[in-house]
């Protein structure tokens, strides 16, 4: 596994979205060329002025859905806002060792986003849980989630449903708007492939 780096969640976008500066500069140039203020663009894209300001400075991430709304305000497609090399081929390949490095969310809980693209509709993540650790989301988030256990044992709790135990080769699918918790009750490291839609920060 690649070396891990412990960061807090607010640091995650800078590490995982190197194209943000390009996107911010592109948006600012388009907005100014059309004589639009930040508030004009915010109204058209149905988002806040402060968010757009951060986006133009490359200080925040953007979902595929919001990127499409911003592009529509310029009568463009979302792909038109990205560098040419991100639009040249519909087939995207990430070679071994090229994926973003592993990030330690908390002690014994690591994630690696396997493919990162602002236009993708799904987000594949490799989740590693050391024994007696868990990854939880008590408030839920929009979308749907699929998990597949690659190695080890996983206990999955979704909302108020009974906790289910999954082992290597088992999978589960659930609405991620519901509170959910993934924990490793075993003595061995658990490795889980999770696929979420829409893309989001882990």
TrEMBL record:
<dbReference type="Pfam" id="PF13560">
    <property type="entry name" value="HTH_31"/>
</dbReference>
<keyword id="KW-0238">DNA-binding</keyword>
<feature type="domain" description="HTH cro/C1-type">
    <location>
        <begin position="27"/>
        <end position="81"/>
    </location>
</feature>
<dbReference type="InterPro" id="IPR011051">
    <property type="entry name" value="RmlC_Cupin_sf"/>
</dbReference>
<dbReference type="GO" id="GO:0003677">
    <property type="term" value="F:DNA binding"/>
</dbReference>
<dbReference type="InterPro" id="IPR050807">
    <property type="entry name" value="TransReg_Diox_bact_type"/>
</dbReference>
<dbReference type="Pfam" id="PF07883">
    <property type="entry name" value="Cupin_2"/>
</dbReference>
<dbReference type="InterPro" id="IPR010982">
    <property type="entry name" value="Lambda_DNA-bd_dom_sf"/>
</dbReference>
<dbReference type="InterPro" id="IPR014710">
    <property type="entry name" value="RmlC-like_jellyroll"/>
</dbReference>
<protein>
    <submittedName>
        <fullName>XRE family transcriptional regulator</fullName>
    </submittedName>
</protein>
<dbReference type="InterPro" id="IPR013096">
    <property type="entry name" value="Cupin_2"/>
</dbReference>
<dbReference type="GO" id="GO:0003700">
    <property type="term" value="F:DNA-binding transcription factor activity"/>
</dbReference>
<dbReference type="InterPro" id="IPR001387">
    <property type="entry name" value="Cro/C1-type_HTH"/>
</dbReference>
<dbReference type="GO" id="GO:0005829">
    <property type="term" value="C:cytosol"/>
</dbReference>
